[in-house]
Amino acid sequence: MMDLLGIWPIFKVIFNLDIAKVGFLMAIAGFCGEACQLIFGHLSDKGYSKKLLILSFVSSSCILFLPLTNSYLVYFFLLLLFYLGSGAYHPAAANIASQFSAKRKGLMITLFSSGGQVGAAFSQIAFVFFYHKTGGHIYLFLIPVYLLLFILKKTDFALVRPTLSTEHSFSNMLAPFKDKKASIVLLYFSQVANQILFFGSIFLMPELLKSFGYPQWYVFGVGHMIYILGMAIVMIPVGYLADMVGEKKLVHICSVLSLAVFYIFLFFPPASLVSVSILLFTLGGVLGSLNPMFLSYGHKLFPKNTGTVSAILMGFAWCAVYLSFGIIGVVVKKFGVQTTMLGMGSLIFVPIILMSLESVFAKKQKPVSVFH
Question: Taking residues 187-209, what's their average pLDDT?
Fold first, then answer.
């Protein structure tokens, strides 16, 4: 299924939508949908991962009707359905991926995330291509979506049997994090800062590339594709290294590299498309690899609650991210895209500082074995 975070930024440019309204719609719909991840994550831990995957595809596929309307109200409801599906998908899929190998959680999580990012990388190009080829009727993609649903329904993931015991009621969802609440809180805010910058860059990528004077074909999809492919490809070796040297060391390394590449790109945008492509690929790789590092480290801290951890570090983090889009849209309208991006770059410092603090708190907390 094509990725909305790739489609929506280019959709707003093609249809000349108001960027402040677009940011506001994305903020409210994204917050409401992703906030449900905590519930979906808890259900995933209770054995409902497969049903949640099926629900996610049905709900998210409604976004394929986006080009059939010009109403902002309809846009909102389609976005809301998409994000409800996204909220169901991510903790369930991450939970399944993390169960494939107890010793290689970092690699498994990055493989899962990388596969998704390959689809996201080609989403803008695919949307523009099929939108023109089908005359706007991209709802024809419902055919492969429901074919995938049929295959999914017939697939056995050998997961735990569904259960909803009183011992693990919704009122106790956060109980497992009591002894290590400092770690989960610092991981959460590190993830929020990273994801605001990463997805905010995607949101503003068409306007930014256009302001630098790059060709229209590069603005409408190719730049986005290279940025996301950088993440999809680089995160695999990074995930492998994380299992050997530790996620926190790699968070610091990737953050410092991100800082350098980000400001080089903004202050010295190269005229050569080859050079700018190398910068975008590198930026997407080092900045995007932080997400699975936070997730993998959280899974190692709480191996019995991976679905809920995924919900906190993805769903709850993305709630804050989507709310930021409303602010970003207003700031861009007032100060311009380049000034907004310069300010957003300061968020790179947040994971460096918070993960250093987490190391201090970790020494005071009792470790939990990954092999439980």
Answer: 91
